Amino acid sequence: MSEELMDNNKDRVESIENSTSTHNQKRKDYLPWDDYFMATAILSSKRSKDPSTQVGACVVDNHNRIVAIGYNGFPRNCSDDEFPWSKDEDKNSIKNKYMYVVHAEANAILNSNCTALDGTRLYTTLFPCNECTKLIIQSGIREIYYLSDKYRDKPVYQAARRMLDAVGIAYKQFIPTQKQVTIDFDLIK
Ligand SMILES: Nc1ccn([C@H]2C[C@H](O)[C@@H](COP(=O)(O)O)O2)c(=O)n1
Fold first, then answer.
1. What pLDDT band is residue 90 in, cutting at 50, 70 and 90?
2. What keywords is this UniProt entry annotated with (predicted)?
3. CB-based contacts of 131, cutoff 8 Å, min separation 6
4. Nearest to 149 by CA among 164, 163, 129, 168
5. 72 lines ligand 1 (CB under 6 A)
6. Looking at 3, 82, 105, 131, which residue is catalytic?
7. Cα separation of the two ends of the chain
8. Backbone phi, then psi, for 60, in 5-degree steps?
9. 110 CA from centroid of ligand 1 (Å)
């Protein structure tokens, strides 16, 4: 065989090896589990009709299965168009949204697709309030990952922390591994 032919053959073999190894390797830029769950919580928050703050929550079991998701909204059959979204009124006024809204975490726990949430993790876009914290404790959730803590100095959130510390439920501000997760419907052909 001529030297030129041998070189060509070598090139072909290398090229096949390269293409095979590329196809055999897993994608490098896949979404890590934690980012995936927090992104699911954020996606869920997009369902909220609250004009001020949209919150999403996602509960995950030890096998990384999503067992519950929720967002903040009015109770079932309480119309989003009839009940008030205002928060300008006095907090105790019946014209105030706080009288009616079910928080994202509470909705997730109440709408869970499994009977027990013992040992699960909660991913929420906003730190849980005291009322949701009571539900979190009672449902057996063991860990909380949150994004925003914008109301941390309010008594409601201080009370939440106090309960979480007392019962030893870990909570941690979530740091995503990537800044953005893009959902572009046009990319799916
Ligand atoms: N951990 C939380 C905290 C609050 N929410 C809900 C309750 C309201 O709909 C909204 C907060 O409204 P803002 O006071 O910012 O006007 O978020 C929740 O679902 N989970």
1. confident
2. Hydrolase, Metal-binding, Nucleotide biosynthesis, Zinc
3. 103, 106, 156
4. 129
5. yes
6. 105
7. 47
8. -130, 140
9. 17
Ligand 1 midpoint to CA 53 (Å): 6
Q: How far is the CA of 186 from the centre of ligand 1 (A)?
A: 32
Query: What are the backbone dihedrals phi and psi of residue 145, each rounded to the nearest 5 degrees, phi first?
Result: -115, 130
Is-catalytic flag, 14? no
Q: Is the CB of residue 144 below 6 angstroms from any atom belonging to ligand 1?
A: no
- In DSSP notation, the chain reads --HHHHHHHHHHHHHHHHHHHHHHSPPSSPPPHHHHHHHHHHHHHTT---SS---EEEEE-TTS-EEEEEE-BPPTTS-TTTS----SS-TTSTTSGGGTPBPHHHHHHHT-SSS--TT-EEEEEE---HHHHHHHHHHT--EEEEEE-TTTTSHHHHHHHHHHHHHT-EEEE---SSS-----GGG--
- Confidence (pTM): 0.89
Give the integer Cα–Cα distance in Å for 47 and 140: 26
Ligand 1 lined by 87 (C-beta under 6 Å): yes
**Res. 1: pLDDT tops 90:** no
Which protein residue's CA is at the shortest distance from atom 19 of ligand 1?
A: 103
Rg of the chain, C-alpha, whole Å:
24
